[in-house]
Amino acid sequence: MGYKGGIFMSRQQVYPYMPNSAPANRQQMMDVLNVSEIKELYQDIIPEDLQLHEQLHLPKPIQDEYTLSKHIEKLLGQNVSCERNISFLGAGCYRHLVPAVCDEIAGRAEFLTAYCGDTYSDHGKMQAIFEYQSMMGELLNLDVVSYTTYDAGQAVCSALRMALRLGAEQGRTELLLPSTMNPEILSQAREYCKCSGTIRLVGHEPETGRLNQQELKAMLSEKTAAVFIENPSYLGFFEEEAEKIGELAHASGAIFIVCPEVASLGILKSPADYGADIVCGDIQPLGIGMHYGGGCAGFIAVRDKPEYIRAIPTYLYGIAKTEHENEFGWGRALNERCSHGSRERANEYFGTESGLWAIVAGVYLGLMGPKGMEELGEQIMRKTDYAIRILSQIPGLRVNPLGGHPFQEFIVNYDFAGKTVKEMNDFLLEYGIFGGKDLSSDFPWLGQSALFCISELTSMEEIQYLYELLKKASGEGAR
To answer: In this protein, which residues make up the domain named Glycine cleavage system P-protein N-terminal (predicted)?
Structure first.
């Protein structure tokens, strides 16, 4: 589609699955644009030295839809999925139950779009998102919940940027983060906040992994904008003195930000109950599939304080009475806050791509109810405890070396067995098991350790099967 010898195919071919590939259609568009060759569209955009002036060595194109479909199915068939294997892998993307109604609602035409419609034409979608915000507010025990962010990483980064904006007049530019936090989110935060603040890592207690409070006290100052923790942490343990950490942050005038695991909030205190000013995190566990790690969305929640609400960078949906009695409508509140309203003057950007997942999470929360969320948390906690107890019986393994009662994820160390995580995971995969996330590069102080994940879908039989294989691998050596 283009000039001979250029970066496009010289042979004109019409493909039924490729819009506007017919030569007449293409010529009509070129006439409107007043160009005679396709390359004219790129000569002012792509520098000459970056243009490829030779044919790409590509396989022959598939010209019919059926053959293309079979080809794609063959490629997808190479995927090693959790449907055909047992997964103990989490570390940010989790295999939870996705009720059939969640997928049904997600596929409905009125919701299945990355775009959020106009105030006057999209009341159904706005009501659905408002209901999601309301149920999340109940789960978090907070007053205001944002429209979804792209993922938990952006939610955390936006919360940190909020703290920097709120503390800007006082010259607060430092953010204190735990050294044991999710390394991917930490990487995002370093990039996201580098122009407006400085990230400093607070050390941990070597025996428990928990935040070193003495070090935190020494690092807190009039420059501190926020103290951030994960609870439970990326490594599975709880910050049991989270309330004290919040008190230390507040005593220095800093904002206390907490990232919880939403699946745990049916049985555990909300961060708001132990002093969090901003709560942020991931909603993927709420009825959203793993989608190769791409089906994600995050949330930000605050108390009913005007300065905090105005600092939220995403949409907020509100409910209001109309001129008709007993009739309500929905719309965006304080629209000038966000990049959609402020454009180039905005402090931050956001997109509507993840809005569909807000609706799905709302469906999930409505289906589960408070009792269902409580049962979810209890089941995960009980199975996690069982897995730790049974795996601890294997000679050579150090299971849950940081102690406590982890929620959903825990560490298994292979040092005393003389094995690497890769060896053990390769061995497990031969038997249809995805082993834990390798922590050896991100947390070298943990040695050859893996982060194992348990969900409500993990059966006792699967845990027993894992026990038998780890016992065999640690005793006989991974092949």
So the answer is: 23-393
